[in-house]
């Protein structure tokens, strides 16, 4: 009879991970956990302590800091796989999951399914000829080397890519290996896993190649399985049910999706919302229920497509994913840089990115051309960003793969800041007080359309005191508001004083905080 070793990659919520692993092992299966090295040591210790007495759980000792789209995700998976192979010699199958996954069938059903099919279950399509990639770069993922994370160091990522293109530094794919692509959620037999580990040890050239590709978790295992296993033994369908919206974003499942999920011909589903507490409880209980009869409708994707197409025609059965009112999430932290001089906040935001402290987005609610990832259209106009502000930020958190995010905000958007504070997330505000000379105030008046080339000098002179007073009033309103976690740095203040504030706001050490405070030309025009 089959015995599953689940490969669980996670980075937060120790209580949920302990519960998930305990439930999966209750029926005799195993779990190998890789807990992101970027997470606090206390979180890892909590998971380890909570599962220490469970013989069917192994914690991956060689932890790595994972970043979306990076080789680190594959390395973390391999580390967890190696730990599972050593710890669980009776495991027959290795099933890749995350903390967002939950079973939608019982363990008995899953074991019967795997026993009846001597197959590997993994999406594996030709990288160059298939249409698996719908948007974004394709060949460039492979033929150029990627040393920077596009979401963390966008400027360096594209600068390096552009330079390689100009110098003609294209590279060939590894000899004798056809590159494949597909979902990273797979279930592989033990024999296949052992072949993969042996291949990794023998073909260091292949390992080096994938280590500098972009989003290798969608190509590495998919390529090696097709290279090592006869095609007749590969079912190119993942056993994990997942859907994407018509805007290319993963659909999230909530408490009222229970019946829909159970009627799908899959063993697991993702992504289950963190707020779907009841759904998680019911699905965890299902795994140990012993139930074997599951009427399969298989209508999930068709139904979802139908509803979204109706929405495009104006007959909407349910709101778009970005039109559902939602919170940022209790475990997320949003830091808001409030500054009237845009270039000052942008320089500090760039310094945050350069020091890899956290992702930082420039004035996304104030400037239409703020660089942003493709979020399916919600980011396309300022109007949409303001209307769906919380959904936009949730998507940015997910894209960045982090629970900490910094944004820049004009102090005129006081109501927007108030709305963020009404959320269940942790909000911190850093007021950046600047000095304004006459030239800057006139430039600002021109940018917002108060004055133009033909405006008389006398009118400008009468208007400037009002503009100056507006600057003071906007910042003062925030300073005097009864909002928690309001911090302040100021132009002309000693860098060590500002550094003390920055250390508290960004939770960094004194040396890093001083480097931020001494960002070159921070307050210069």
Descriptive account of the structure:
This protein is of the alpha/beta class. The protein is built from 20 helices and 17 strands. It has helices at 14-25, 41-51, 71-87, 107-115, 140-143, 154-167, 190-202, 204-211, 220-228, 258-262, 277-287, 300-312, 342-354, 382-387, 389-400, 414-421, 438-447, 457-479, 495-506, 510-517; strands spanning 4-10, 30-35, 57-59, 93-98, 102-103, 120-121, 125-126, 180-181, 187-189, 234-235, 240-241, 268-269, 333-338, 360-361, 404-409, 426-433, 486-490. The strands form 5 sheets. The chain has a 5-stranded mixed β-sheet, sandwiched between helices. Strands 14-15-13-16-17 form a 5-stranded parallel β-sheet, sandwiched between helices.
Topology record:
Blueprint (H helix, E strand, L loop, with lengths): L3 E7 L3 H12 L4 E6 L5 H11 L5 E3 L11 H17 L5 E6 L3 E2 L3 H9 L4 E2 L3 E2 L13 H4 L10 H14 L12 E2 L5 E3 H13 L1 H8 L8 H9 L5 E2 L4 E2 L16 H5 L5 E2 L7 H11 L12 H13 L20 E6 L3 H13 L5 E2 L20 H6 L1 H12 L3 E6 L4 H8 L4 E8 L4 H10 L9 H23 L6 E5 L4 H12 L3 H8 L8
Parallel strand pairs: 1-2, 1-4, 2-3, 6-10, 11-12, 13-15, 13-16, 14-15, 16-17
Antiparallel strand pairs: 4-9, 5-12, 7-8
For the structure shown, list the relevant keywords.
single chain; 525 residues; alpha/beta; 5-stranded parallel sheet; 20 helices
Q: How far is it from the N-terminal to the C-terminal residue, by CA?
A: 71 Å
Main sheet overview: 5 strands, mixed
Q: Which percent range fits the helix content?
A: 40-55%
| Secondary-structure content class | alpha/beta
Instruction: Tell me the strand percentage band.
Output: 5-15%
Q: What Rg do the Cα atoms give?
A: 26 Å
**Average pLDDT across residues?**
87
What is the subunit arrangement here?
A: single chain
> What's the shape?
elongated
Q: How many beta-strand segments?
A: 17
Give the spatial strand order of the biggest sheet. 3-2-1-4-9
């Amino acid at each position: 009879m089959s015995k599953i070793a689940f490969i669980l990659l996670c980075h937060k919520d120790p209580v949920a991970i302990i519960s998930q692993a305990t439930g999966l092992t209750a029926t005799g299966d195993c779990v190998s956990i890789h807990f992101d090295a970027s997470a606090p040591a206390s979180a890892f210790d909590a998971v380890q302590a909570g599962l220490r007495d469970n013989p069917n759980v192994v914690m991956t000792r060689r932890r790595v800091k994972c970043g979306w789209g990076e080789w680190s995700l594959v390395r973390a998976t391999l580390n967890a796989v190696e730990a599972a192979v050593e710890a669980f010699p009776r495991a027959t199958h290795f099933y890749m999951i995350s903390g967002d996954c939950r079973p939608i069938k019982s363990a008995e059903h899953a074991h019967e399914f795997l026993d009846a099919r001597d197959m590997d279950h993994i999406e594996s399509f030709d990288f160059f000829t298939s249409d698996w990639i719908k948007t974004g770069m394709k060949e460039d993922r492979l033929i150029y080397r990627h040393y920077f994370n596009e979401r963390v160091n966008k400027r360096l990522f594209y600068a390096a890519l552009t330079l390689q293109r100009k110098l003609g530094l294209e590279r060939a794919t590894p000899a004798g290996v056809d590159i494949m692509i597909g979902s990273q959620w797979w279930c592989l037999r033990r024999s296949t896993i052992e072949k993969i580990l042996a291949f990794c040890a023998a073909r260091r050239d292949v390992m080096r190649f994938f280590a500098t590709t972009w989003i290798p978790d969608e190509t590495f295992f998919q390529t090696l399985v097709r290279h090592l296993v006869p095609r007749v033994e590969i079912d190119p369908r993942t056993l994990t049910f997942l859907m994407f919206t018509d805007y290319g974003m993963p659909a999230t499942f909530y408490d009222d999706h229970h019946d829909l999920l159970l009627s799908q011909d899959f063993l697991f589903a993702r992504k289950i919302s963190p707020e779907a507490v009841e759904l998680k409880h019911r699905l965890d209980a299902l795994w140990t229920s012993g139930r074997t009869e599951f009427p399969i409708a298989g209508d999930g994707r068709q139904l979802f497509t139908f509803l979204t197409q109706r929405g495009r025609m104006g007959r909407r059965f349910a709101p778009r994913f970005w039109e559902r009112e939602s919170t940022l999430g209790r475990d997320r932290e949003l830091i808001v840089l409030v500054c009237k001089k845009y270039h000052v906040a942008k320089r500090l935001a760039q310094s945050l990115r350069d020091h890899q402290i956290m992702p930082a987005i420039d004035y996304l609610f104030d400037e239409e051309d703020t660089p942003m990832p493709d979020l399916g259209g919600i980011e396309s106009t300022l109007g949409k960003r303001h209307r769906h502000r919380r959904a936009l930020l949730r998507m940015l958190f997910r894209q960045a793969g982090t629970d900490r995010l910094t944004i820049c905000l004009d102090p005129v958007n006081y109501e927007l800041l108030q709305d963020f504070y009404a959320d269940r997330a942790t909000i911190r505000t850093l007021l950046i007080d600047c000095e304004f000379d006459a030239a800057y105030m006139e430039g600002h008046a021109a940018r917002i359309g108060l004055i133009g080339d033909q405006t008389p000098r006398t009118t400008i002179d009468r208007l400037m005191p009002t503009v100056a007073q507006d600057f003071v009033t906007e910042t003062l309103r925030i300073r005097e508001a009864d909002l928690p976690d309001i911090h302040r740095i100021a132009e002309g203040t000693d860098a060590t004083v500002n550094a003390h504030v920055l250390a508290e706001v960004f939770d960094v050490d004194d040396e890093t905080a001083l480097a931020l405070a001494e960002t070159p030309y921070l307050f210069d025009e």
